[in-house]
Amino acid sequence: MAVEPQAGGDELDVQVYRSRRVADMYLMVPAGDDLSEIPEALLQKFGVPEESFRFRLTPGRRLARVDPAQLRAALETQGYYLQLPPEVRVEELLKRLSDER
Question: What pLDDT is recorded for position 41?
Fold first, then answer.
């Protein structure tokens, strides 16, 4: 999915969804995206995305838990960015999610 910059040049509006299944797990996509680019397996683990907030990604913007350049690169190449809880390792998260099924 190609992401088009906003009229301001390098600015990009980002929609953030939170997971109801896993605390502090967020899915970020370009604002206006219909989530059709998100892999089905990821959505099954994530659960029904709940809209949380939007923000404008601009050059120089600081984010709490992700490098803005890394976020932009993920949005441009794969169409989404998955932010995992800070204290949970990926292996633990996958095990917990599979145990819940």
Answer: 92
